Amino acid sequence: MIFLFPYMARWRAANWTRYHQLLTHLCRKGHQVIVLEPPPLTLRETNFIDLDIALPEGMSVIQVPVPLWQVKTPWQKLVKRGLYTLACRSVMREIMATQPVDVVLLYNLPQWVLLRKGPWVTVFDVADDLTAMLEHELGWLGNWGIYRVAQALQSHMVKQCHIVTTASLCLQERLGEKAVLVPNGVSLQEAGASDGKELRAQYRAPIVGYLGAFEYFVDFDIVLTAARFLKGVTFLLVGAGRELAAVSRRVAREGLTNVVLPGPIPHHLIFNYIAAMDVCLIPFRQSAVGEAACPLKLFEYAGAERPVISTPVREVQTIGKEFVTFASDAQELQQTISELLHSPQRRAALAAKGVEIVERQYTWDALTEQFLHLVNTARDRKFSENTEN
What we know:
Elements: E1 2-6, H1 18-28, E2 32-37, E3 59-63, H2 76-98, E4 103-106, E5 121-126, H3 130-138, H4 144-160, E6 163-166, H5 169-175, E7 179-181, H6 188-192, H7 197-202, E8 207-211, H8 220-229, E9 234-238, H9 244-253, E10 259-263, H10 270-275, E11 279-282, H11 288-292, H12 296-303, E12 308-310, H13 314-320, E13 324-326, H14 330-341, H15 344-361, H16 364-388
Parallel strand pairs: 1-2, 1-4, 2-3, 4-5, 5-6, 6-7, 8-9, 8-11, 9-10, 11-12, 12-13
Helix pairs in contact: 1-16, 3-4, 8-14, 12-15
């Protein structure tokens, strides 16, 4: 099958998403994937930092030309997303006129303009609370009127698409009975090939780590507060995003010499960094975005057999109740880190339970098969309906 995916970020990005995993695994199973991407941006965001990432066999990435791309405007990120989505329409028409596209995968609200009828199956995948994220991006414009428009667009896409998938139980409940849960996962083969020895030699042990986006839904305040009181612990915070500059400034201002910020890293190195950590963190803020999230890092940490400490956000509590330790504030986080670092047997037991659970339920190979089953069922149903008509 040929899958067409209009991505709203750069494919060779520092922030490795569920779509990188899902589409890469589709290619490994012999399918073709066409990824559309916008031109490069200068925004200091994880999704727009290009790194050296090899494409899997069967995947092609097409950069879509976008008029007025370099023009600076208020709410620049949202405006550029709109411009890019509009530009995708003509590119998609050209591709569909020359290639037998089987599946179109959409995942964000501006993409409602890309909904078209045709022989293909359209999938709407909802990985995050899109309306809450839009409200945050709009700032003071994120009033109830805009919020209702966003909800209406989301409902329209749910109704019009053949398949609706979502990453979390919370989002599944909000989207209604049409939504099918396809959570995030991990490639155990990648996790098992990790080697953290070289990185551990660079930093003073013990090492407490975070790997992911530096964005508004991550609570770096509690992490840096804990680091201030745990001077003998190295805090290895890996990634990039709009909050990285603020975090860097605070680290310098408070003289937190035990906090290391290596910046973004290519995906093929992430498990080396995770393997170097003694304890891994998921410090999400208690917000609409955090509550609805199904963090990729939860499965990557667990797949690498590392103990996890998280703030008590809903999805992590649901999935990780048997292997995640929870801390609500900086004081609890500090105490929990200390207890785990002084309890190697408990760390080992939690890590063993974590890898057992992800191996049983959350591997990308199995999740890709689930996704393909949904697609094939929808294709068969669509063919049957067309035959009857």
